[in-house]
Specification:
This protein is mostly beta strands. The chain folds into two domains: 2-98, 2-Layer Sandwich (Alpha-Beta Plaits), CATH 3.30.70; 102-215, Pectate Lyase C-like, CATH 2.160.20.70. Helix content is 14%, strand content 38%. It has helices spanning 27-37, 62-71, 84-92; strands at 8-12, 18-22, 47-52, 74-80, 96-97, 103-104, 113-115, 124-127, 131-133, 142-145, 149-155, 158-161, 171-177, 180-183, 186-189, 197-198, 202-207, 210-215. Strand 14 and strand 15 form a beta hairpin. The longest helix is centred in the first third of the chain and has 11 residues, at 27-37. The N and C termini lie far apart (58 Å).
């Protein structure tokens, strides 16, 4: 029986983002494992997740696994543990690669999380609460929150708000030359033609299923 020897396993990182560990590269087995096991973890639906690729090789069909997760209303925002080939494939599809040594998590849970410094290249910040940054977000840095993100500085990296599906989340910044912004899984990436660059206080919000910029 498949359930007696599962090919996927659900765990949780210290940052509370759910992590899916893959133990097979066979897409049919993975699809069946997701179908059978998701009944036991209904809270995973509409979740942003991390894929752990430590136990699979580069034969993994990246497009198929992303299709499988989306069909179960789960959204892959990062991967970890993969080899260089797999990491490249996921990056080409707009998925971040977690470097575990660079992951930084606020230590104290509060009504809001305040960071009094610049977030430097390679750093990643995640908070369940509204995230307030008194500093810049450098290029190749990432800030993530289940709620809104307030940046009292320049956004040059990536900002992902409402990552568990909160479409009422916003991203505020004093100025921006962002690489990417995302709210509730809706993305705008630099170079797509959208206005991610501005030199005045502004707000990113969802309007008509798209991300819009509003001057403050």
């Amino acid at each position: 029986m498949l359930n007696q020897s599962p090919h996927i396993q659900f765990k949780s990182r210290s940052v509370t983002l759910p992590t899916i560990y893959l133990y097979s590269s066979n897409p049919d087995i993975l699809a069946l494992s997701f179908k059978e096991q998701l009944g036991q973890v209904a809270l995973m639906k509409q979740a942003s997740v991390i894929l752990d690729l430590s136990h699979v090789d580069q034969s993994l069909d990246v497009d198929r696994i992303l299709q499988i997760t989306r069909s179960h209303q789960m959204y892959v925002i990062s991967v970890q543990g993969g080899n260089a080939e797999l990491n490249t494939q996921f990056k080409q599809r707009g998925i971040n690669v977690f470097q575990q040594t660079s992951l930084e998590t606020p230590k104290h849970k509060q009504k809001e999380t305040c960071i009094h410094k610049t977030i430097r290249s390679g750093q990643q910040i995640y908070s369940e609460e509204p995230l307030i940054i008194f500093g810049d977000v450098s290029a190749a840095a990432e800030v993530m929150s289940d709620a809104s993100i307030h940046i009292y500085g320049e956004l040059r990296g990536r900002a992902m708000a409402g990552i568990r599906g909160n479409e009422n989340a916003h991203i505020f910044a004093l100025s921006s030359h962002a690489e990417m912004v995302s709210i509730a899984g809706i993305k705008q990436v630099s170079g797509m033609g959208q206005a991610l660059s501005f030199n005045q206080p502004s707000r990113f919000s969802i309007l008509d299923n798209d991300i819009m910029v509003f001057n403050l």
